[in-house]
Amino acid sequence: MKLALVGDIGGTNARFAIWEDDSLHSVRVFPTIDYTGPEKAIEVYMQDLELQRGDIGYVCLAVAGPVDGDHFQFTNSHWELSKTAFCAALKVDHLLLVNDFTAMALGMTRLKDDEYLTVCHGIGKSDRPRVIVGPGTGLGVGTLIKQSESYWMALPGEGGHVDLPIGTAREALLWTRLMAEHKHVSAEVVLSGAGLLLLYQVSCALDGIEPTLKSPAAITSAALEGDAVAAAVLEQFCVFLGRVVGNQVLTVGGLGGVYIAGGVVPRFVDFFMNSGFKRALAEKGVMSDYFKGLPVWLVTAEYPGLMGSGVALQQAFGSEI
Asked: Which of 101, 181, 224, 236 is least surrounded by Cβ atoms within 10 Å, i.e. has the fewest?
């Protein structure tokens, strides 16, 4: 029987693993900037495992962007992919492409007890959707709907590109400065790694402060060390995230619960837990009570997108793999 390979490809890193017996093994991470495309990275991955072309029959790749047709252009990297050319180059029988947050959502169905932290305590309604939002290189948004005790459906979407929600006069001023630099101020413009740096820069400009920090990591570190300017920016980041998550919960009726995923928030867990995220989440006027008892979890699992890719592959091909 041929092997099954799964991948989770973001704007910065591509993660690959072998999917076997309903689990992952041989996980490797490849910086996308080092390779011309996914085929080249997978060739190196296969060489590392001493695999030949044709040894892998099934591939599922979780990719950042809307999936439609044979050609795919990655949203946040230079990579692109033709399904036909990919299968021919690697001698793969079946290639399944899914949106990265479709895979991330499916990965939530396999979380272990030590792979998430509780942000807001509550009991989710089993018959209602669950919402997944994840700031990383971009901003991913997904939705899970339970179909049966053992099967969840993940709805594909591009919720990270909705308009950035404004809730205060200061946020409106920040938005005005963001609008001067972007044709569309989406949620992702702020709620991403690069977005944190941009938020810092426009906040400093608004307050007449000379920006001295040059990276998202530097901003996070300064905030955690007590720098007032950096801390205020990180607080605003958490508030914007709360507003976006709250909007998504209202839109899909996501009373099953919320997962905060992605690589950004786990870098400042304690700060996030004590931030204005919870307040902003439920700051919805006449609908504020809608959020009472809504559970929110912060995902700390190392490879939830890869796991979700495996689940998607299993759903698509079942006993064949």
From this structure: 181
Per-residue pLDDT of the chain (321 residues; tens, 9 = 90+): 799 999 999 878 999 999 999 999 999 999 999 999 999 999 999 999 999 999 999 999 999 888 888 999 987 788 999 999 999 999 999 999 998 899 999 999 999 999 999 999 999 999 999 999 999 989 999 999 999 988 999 998 889 999 999 999 999 999 999 999 898 999 999 999 999 999 999 999 999 999 999 999 999 999 999 999 999 999 999 999 999 999 999 999 999 999 999 999 999 999 999 999 999 999 999 999 999 999 999 999 999 999 999 999 999 998 787
Please give the Cα distance from 232 to 272 (Å, whole number).
12
Judgement on whether residues 276 and 308 belong to the same structural domain of the protein: no
Same domain as 207, residue 121: yes
Interatomic CA distance for residues 114 and 47, integer angstroms: 33
Alpha carbons 11 and 252: distance in angstroms, whole number: 27
Helix (H) or strand (E) holding 30: strand 23-31
Find the domain containing 250 and state its range.
112-300
Residues 206 and 312 in one domain: no
Count of structural domains within the chain: 2
Q: Name the pTM for this structure.
A: 0.92
141 with 85, same domain: the answer is no
Question: Quick one: which of 40, 43, 39, 41 has its CA closest to 30?
Answer: 41
For residue 191, give the nearest of 142, 252, 264, 251 by alpha carbon: 264
